[in-house]
Amino acid sequence: MTSIATGELISKVEVNDDAVAVVKRSCKDLGVTVKTDLEAAEHFSGEDEDSFKENNGGVKPSDVVPDSSTRKMTKQCLPQLKKIHTTGDWWSLWIGLASFILAIALVFTVQYDHGSSRIKYVIPQPKRWETNPFEAWDLYGVIGTVLLLAFLCSLYLVSQNAMGKLESKPVCKYIKGFFSLGGIATLAFGIGRNKYCYLSGFGYAIFSIIFGMLITNSPLASGDRLSSLKIVAKDGEFFIKCSLALLATPFGILGEVGVGSLVVAWVGSPIALVLGFVFANQVLKMDTGLALLIATGATWCGASAISAIGSVIDAPGRDISLSISVVAFFTIFFTFAQPYLALGVGMNERIAGAWIGGSVDQTGNVIASAAIISEEATEVAAIVKIVLNSGLGILATAVAFIWQLRGPKDETKAFSWMFLWDKFPKFVLGYLLCSTVLSVLLPFIEGTAEADALQRAIITMNTWWFALGFVGVGMGTNIKELWHGARKSGIIQGYLVTNIIDIAISFGLSYAMF
């Protein structure tokens, strides 16, 4: 049995009694007895180094003291372990995983059959409606939405408590504020489900932001009014991060679609994104973050892509609002311009569908646009858009690495893998884990009603967090500053040029592959 003293270790590494106990237990398993300074002094009674070596099989005291690199790693790892339950970055991961688990649980507990409309609405939400808004709700939807918001609120409160934010303000303020925010998000979600709004490109995202901006820029929010709502609205970007793990897509989807769809979506869009970003940043001299947001929104998935990338690069809420607003506005024009142009020149229906799927933003707009041409064009456009959407998590992961590696010069000098890990968005871990679960689970339930409902449920859960986040982002936006930013930043020119590049590349690849 070998005995060592912890004196030198403890003098150089700040550890508490619990850490010492852990070290003792670990070393005991290896046949080494670890003693504190006092225990060692009483045991060795002044033995010199030679005596220590003789009594301990030739082991010197210095042999059992960690080197500088080990001590440095210990100092770096202990704070990282603490962050797992005390930082918003980690809590966005835990909340995303909890929401994912709830979605799976509801899919396998709620009663429904093949062909049942409930398959689309396992997660409570407003239904599609045309003229009567009450058609959007049934008893399951009303009660379920209240319970769902209560569950999401509980996750939010647990995270805020762990981060120490509930110590300065009463819990009741957070509860009141969250349900107020949830009510606004539900209203926006419901209006966005209107058939005509949906087909025109006015989905829940734009209504959530508009309602948020109207509230915060009106006399209703002056002074101390709506203080509870304002407290929770500040976490709008945190809610968006919570949703990102729910972008999960089964890896097997890549084998189910044609090569043509993959090329149009995953070759054309990245090229257009890079070219658009370079133009906006280098030619228009736009801020790097804003240029990346508008290039991503124009070439990938509109509001969803802007929100995901905005969270990765910690973009200001006003930049996210501005980018989403510009993309949503111009997308309406391209939704109708592209299909009528395709019809006017007699473009092949499959080529037209792939072209629209790869270049029109927002899934709803893609379907509405391709439907003007034909059913076949709609089918092809939907497949290309699904492939493009499934790559959003991969895009966010790539941007996360590149963004941290290109950081400020002073940070680059001090670069380390621990630094990169600290800055790395943890939602990516959730995205990969959830995608893995779907990839394993879906083959076992293929052909069942649960298989049809599962991915819809996860998308809906993602939508709820997005809706909450967009309301918060809208409330953090000053309309005067937004208008000034749109005129002065060059974002409109950046979007139009990037979108034209995307349209041209998508057409060329669609013509070549279809």
Look at the helices and sheets and give the structural class.
mainly alpha
Topology pattern, helix = H, strand = E? EHHEHHHHHHHHHHHHHHHHHHHHHHHHH
**Separation of the first and last Cα atoms:** 74 Å
Gyration radius over CA:
27 Å
Bin the helical content. Answer: over 70%
- Look at the structure and give the mean pLDDT: 80
Shape: globular
Oligomer: single chain
Domain count: the total is 2
Low-confidence stretches: 1-17, 34-47, 408-415
Structural overview:
The protein has 514 residues and is mostly helical. Helices cover 72% and strands 2% of the residues. It contains 27 helices and 2 strands. It has helices at residues 7-12, 17-29, 37-44, 49-55, 68-83, 88-109, 139-162, 171-192, 195-199, 204-216, 227-233, 236-244, 253-256, 259-283, 288-299, 303-312, 317-344, 349-359, 363-371, 375-390, 392-405, 409-413, 417-423, 427-441, 449-475, 479-488, 491-513; strands at 2-5, 32-35. Strands 1-2 form a two-stranded parallel ribbon. Mean pLDDT is 80; it is low at 1-17, 34-47 and 408-415.
Summarize the SSE layout with pairings:
Blueprint: E1 2-5, H1 7-12, H2 17-29, E2 32-35, H3 37-44, H4 49-55, H5 68-83, H6 88-109, H7 139-162, H8 171-192, H9 195-199, H10 204-216, H11 227-233, H12 236-244, H13 253-256, H14 259-283, H15 288-299, H16 303-312, H17 317-344, H18 349-359, H19 363-371, H20 375-390, H21 392-405, H22 409-413, H23 417-423, H24 427-441, H25 449-475, H26 479-488, H27 491-513
Parallel strand pairs: 1-2
